Amino acid sequence: MYKILSLDGGGSWAIIQLLTLKDRYGNLNGHQILKKFDLIIANSGGSIVLAALAENYTLDKAIALFKEKRNRELIFHKNTFKDRYFPVDYLGLFNAGFGPKYSTKRKKEAFESLFPEIDKIQMDELPKLIGKDSLKIVVATYDALNNRAKFFKSFSANSEGDDSVRLTQAINASSNAPVQYFDFPARFKAKGSDIFYELWDGALGGFNNPILAGIIEAYKLGVDLNTIRVISLGTSNSLMSADSKRDFWNWKQIALQFRRKKLRFSTWKPQLNFFKETVLHQAKTILYQTPDTAN
Questions:
Q1: Residues 62, 30: contact at Cβ < 8 Å?
Q2: Alpha helices in the chain (DSSP H)
Q3: Alpha-carbon span 68 to 70, nearest angstrom
Q4: DSSP letters along 238-281, please?
């Protein structure tokens, strides 16, 4: 039996994954959990869960990582007006609700502080630290310069190890949701390389739920597909209520009907609501399950 643990993205919703693991296994430490599996694949919030387990947090301590306000504010550090770039800085003054709110750089510093042991070593050294040399670890990210998914692994067919990075670097990239969340791509280069990566959240490549990539990695390793068993811990999103769908439809009709009547001030609010809902929903699509890959 080849066991895969797949951990979805979803920001602080990842606490659901930890609560599920605790319900299933009790308050074990992270290494005890990880040694139950042969391959771990994670994205975004799920990669932060992976880091907590690799740091050997107990599940209760890992839950506190998301539950305690201080920890959340370390990871999701809000940019001040001074730290935001144009036009996000001025939009923020008017509470427009558009543009990135959090600092990629401060998130990186938070991970280095919260996970000091795994920050000292490369990903290929993690299985030995965890106590299972055969363990395979994969983190999903998105290459912002080449516009394609990029996976960082604890194993490689490349003997030169050009992709050798620390897990804290990989999770900073994997949790780096753009547009509405973090300000700049995560920038770093692999050990032994002079080429810098510029990276966003792995969900941009369709891997917020990374099951498919995990199974492909196992297949590439020569694992018999019939022996694979997956525990997939998701976060996903809630479906829109009937009332919200009706509101959206009504706002859309007003926008269509009055788009050429510029002085009908009474119609501005529903038109603004339609615009806001449309933009925010598209900006948050990376949190949603991608139908053609998630299944």
A1: yes
A2: 15-25, 30-34, 45-54, 59-67, 69-75, 88-93, 104-114, 126-130, 167-174, 211-220, 242-258, 268-283, 291-294
A3: 6
A4: PPPPHHHHHHHHHHHHHHHHHTT-TT-GGGHHHHHHHHHHHHHH
Exposed, middle or buried by CB within 10 Å (0-12, 13-18, 19+), for 18?
buried
**Beta-bridge partner residues of 136:** 39
Query: Taking 50 as the threshold, does the pLDDT of residue 156 lie above it?
Result: yes
Which residues is 78 bridged to in the sheet? Answer: 102
Which value, in Å, is the radius of gyration of the alpha carbons in the chain?
A: 21
What share of the chain in percent tops pLDDT 90?
A: 67
Report helix, strand or coil for 139.
Answer: strand
User: For position 238, what pLDDT does the model report?
Assistant: 66
- What distance in Å separates the CA atoms of residue 57 and residue 27, rounded to the nearest whole number? 10
Q: How many helices (H) and strands (E) does the chain have?
A: 13, 7
> Can you tell me the distance from the alpha carbon of 240 to that of 267, in angstroms, rounded to the nearest whole number?
24
